[in-house]
Write a structure and sequence with these properties.
The chain contains 14 helices and 7 strands. It is α/β, with parallel strands linked by helices. The radius of gyration is 21 Å and the shape is globular. The N and C termini lie far apart (53 Å).
Amino acid sequence: MDNNRNVLLIIKSLYPSLHRVEKKIAGFILENPETIIYMPIAQMAKDLEVAESSIVRFCKIIGFDGFKQLKISLVKSLENPEKIIYEDINKNDSQHEIINKVFSSSIRTLQESLQTIDENQFTMAVEAMLKAKRIEFYGVGTSSTLAQDAYYRFMRIGLPVYAVVDPHVCRVSASTMDNTCLAIAISYKGRTRDTVETLEIAKSKGARTMCITCFPQSPITKVSDIQIIMPTSEAKIMREAISSRIAQIAIIDSLYTAVALEKFDTVVDHIEDLSDILSSVRL
């Protein structure tokens, strides 16, 4: 793992998929990051009443060779302590405070996402989109608007894209794919049954599969050949993750831009034609 990544952010995003002892270790680190930096592994094991081997195993689960490497990454994560203060919104906030918290959360989410995106996976995604004879975006619920937005963007530059947001139609559509196709699923937690099962169907038909999600080791990553993962810690508004959608829009825009530049000569013609068409319907 890149030691420059925010280890606290990684642990928090992996937390739901951890087992009981692993969650105990993760919770202790999240609550006492400054203390961990100076704590020997033997002392931590004693305080938590777990085996040292469990701590080492936890370190490897989150991508480190051992406890020492984890502590080095913690130091770097704490160099900017404001990054680990996550203010939630509450009913007593003024409208001014709400605006500031929502905007701050969105800005922070974009910054965190930028730190955690795997550039190799991004490159694989661009190459897969350029090669595919048919690309389908899947998303249900709040992810449906992202799938439709992605469809509109890539359709504008001439890619063979479609967006399917009805759970039943998603399954039917996925069943018609083959090894020339690319199935892209968008899901915040990566646990939406309809979306995961749609990707499973597409994969069984030989299609390349890809996910855009915020939770590593979520079910959707298990059926994805390409994983665009952006772990984030954001303010939750009425238990709804808001800012993560902005990060997902940003990654879709990044993919769109990268693909457009690869197809620059033909893209220019498409955009010029589209501009002429749209100008006739504008006042």
